[in-house]
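DATA SHEET
Item: assembly model
Revision: 1
Owner: S.N.
Input lines:
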Amino acid sequence: MADTDQLRESLAWHLEAGVDECIGEAPVDRFAESAKAISAPVISEAKTAPRAAPKPAPAQRRQKPGASASEIAVENACALAGNANSIEELRAAVDRFEDCALRKTATNTVFADGNPKARIMFVGEAPGADEDRQGVPFVGVSGQLLDLMLASIGLDRAQFYITNIVFWRPPGNRNPSSNEIAACLPFVERHIELVDPDILVPLGGPAAKTLLARSEGITRMRGKWFAYSSPKLAAPIDAMPFFHPAYLLRSPAYKREAWRDLLAIKAKLEEN
Ligand code: URA
């Protein structure tokens, strides 16, 4: 009985700390592993199996006296993102960026999916558990709903490009904090400049508010066209906020409005 109580308490503690799934199929005895490591003979480097490819060198980090950690993060992100002149360079820059706390708890960086030459770009909020495991955005249930909705207007991942406003899964699927969003924003803005789509679709309130610098909720912004601009874009991009598919899964009554917005997006693609 005492064991059951302890297990229950331990489970509750893990849930509260943000652990909401088991990654391995079988339990791992870490105590046995560390005991083995202590007693194992030291093997010289030459005799060990080849190691995994080294991670890219971390970026040079600026340390401005008096600046807060979040100011330094934004400054480093601007420097790295500003030097990226292609999507691949930007992906490498995100890989080297160490100033967003989210990357410490994430399994993979989730950069983007789809066709970077597409005329339409979607920007969601943050990777979830499936995306974190696979390193690809929108592959879980909400991504599957989004794929279905876009297929209904003739779009598949060869015809659209998709990313998020943060590149790492927030622990326990909490909302990303304003500092975490601010640290990733220079990369997201450069991402949009490099893709330079005809149409930009922020998915859900946080992405819409961040990209369009507005304070209204998604119910007010959805279905309306806004002009998205940034200094290196030759011309503003037509942007329409759209309900996040996870919200549509929770509130299917809003699918009627979502369908109207999909038709407006399709018409805009046809008109350009
Ligand atoms: N929700 C998001 O906002 N992004 C993903 O990649 C997955 C779910």
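QC remark: The chain has a mean pLDDT of 88.
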